[in-house]
Amino acid sequence: MSSDRDPLTALGRLEDGGFRRLAARLALLRAYVRYREREGCSDAQAQDDVADAYKDGTADVPDWTYDVYDSVTARTLRRWTNQFREEGLSGLIDRHGRRSQRSYDSYFGAGSELRKIALYYIADHPDCTSTELREELARHVDKDDLPTLRTVQRFLSKMS
Fold it and tell me: How far apart, in whole angstroms, are the C-alpha atoms of residue 80 and residue 28?
């Protein structure tokens, strides 16, 4: 019998974006572990160095990881390492309620209604704040379908 805590069950429920984020996290953690073992340095030093290499585009990761994560900090690598140590693979899988109940793409993915509304509003109000944009979105969708302010902020930052 499968449960929500079973990694294979959780993997089976992942959307494409969730699976790519998981794969990218694993690739980055693998790069960090390889670097730490090769250089014989501490966890913290290896995480710092791999984060710097990722920023420079020289990290030992597949090229597609840059399509998933624009940047990764040493702090993020530490968090993922701890999640993996505590929960195994399940700790790296996106879960509802961790950041939001829906993924960023499900709100503002290509062709989504929220994206259309947001783009029209931004075109008419190019200097709008994320709060103003979220208020505009709230006029058009139910509260359950409204992204968090942070999600709206991320969308605006990608649009500028």
Answer: 9
For the residues of 72-103, what is the DSSP string, one character each? Answer: --HHHHHHHHHHHHHHGGGGGS--TTTS-SS-
Using the structure block, give the residue that is written with the tokens 């961790």: 98
Mean residue pLDDT of the chain comes to: 84
Give percent above pLDDT 70 in the chain.
82
Q: Quick one: residue 106, left, alpha or beta (phi over 0 = left, psi -120 to 50 = alpha)?
A: alpha
Lowest mean pLDDT among 10-19, 33-42, 88-97: 10-19
How confident is the model over 13-37, as a mean pLDDT?
85
Nearest alpha-carbon partner for 28 in 86, 72, 91: 72
Q: Which amino acid is at 149?
A: L
Q: How far apart are CA 66 and CA 47, in angstroms?
A: 17
Mean pLDDT across the stretch 144-153?
85
The encoded tokens of residue 40 equal 């014989």
Tokens, residue 105: 């793409």
Give the model's pLDDT for residue 20: 82
- Give dist(CA 72, CA 147) in Å, integer: 23
